[in-house]
Structure to design on (76 residues):
């Protein structure tokens, strides 16, 4: 599946595919949210979770860029 094909899926189908077929990579914490990074085929998906409301509030899929850099432990 390509990133484009994934984005064409209905939102609930995207979540189903991600959580059934995706691989966990990493997570990061911010003051009011938790972010989890998954890989699915040849792209990444970041899921934002709000612990106060106990809900997933956003999902962003991408191949590279600043979002991916947030999970790097390298200092540039």
């Amino acid at each position: 599946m390509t990133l484009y094909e994934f984005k064409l899926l209905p939102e609930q189908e995207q979540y189903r595919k991600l959580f059934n077929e995706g691989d966990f990579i990493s997570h990061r914490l911010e003051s009011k949210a938790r972010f989890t990074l998954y890989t699915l085929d040849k792209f990444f998906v970041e899921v934002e979770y709000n612990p106060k409301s106990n809900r997933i509030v956003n999902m962003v899929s991408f191949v590279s860029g600043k979002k991916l850099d947030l999970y790097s432990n390298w200092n540039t």
Observations:
- DSSP finds three helices and four strands in the chain.
